[in-house]
């Protein structure tokens, strides 16, 4: 599950403190070595790479765990 939030680091830290692992989005493609030669501005790519977070999602994720994750997200973002 992908989310885009203003303060990704705050959400990541709060969820980790609750035992919920997340992953930051990959760096913007134009910032990676094979593409650094590409000229231009890519504000959407930059924004998403800096604000995107992957939440836990897998086939055996139970409803109770999903509820727990949602409650923790709400608490962190309050």
From TrEMBL:
Instruction: Kindly name one Pfam family recorded for this protein.
Output: DegT_DnrJ_EryC1
The record's listing under InterPro entries reads: DegT/StrS_aminotransferase, PyrdxlP-dep_Trfase, PyrdxlP-dep_Trfase_small
Q: Which SUPFAM superfamilies does its entry note?
A: PLP-dependent transferases
The protein in question is named DegT/DnrJ/EryC1/StrS aminotransferase family protein
Q: Which organism is it from?
A: marine sediment metagenome
Q: What is the lineage of its organism?
A: unclassified sequences, metagenomes, ecological metagenomes
């Amino acid at each position: 599950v992908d989310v885009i939030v203003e303060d990704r680091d705050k959400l990541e830290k709060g969820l980790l403190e609750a035992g919920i692992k997340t992953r930051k989005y990959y760096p913007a493609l134009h910032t990676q070595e094979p593409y650094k030669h590409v000229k231009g501005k890519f504000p959407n790519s930059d924004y998403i790479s800096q604000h995107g977070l992957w939440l836990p999602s897998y086939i055996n994720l139970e409803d109770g765990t999903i509820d727990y994750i949602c409650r923790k997200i709400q608490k962190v973002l309050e």
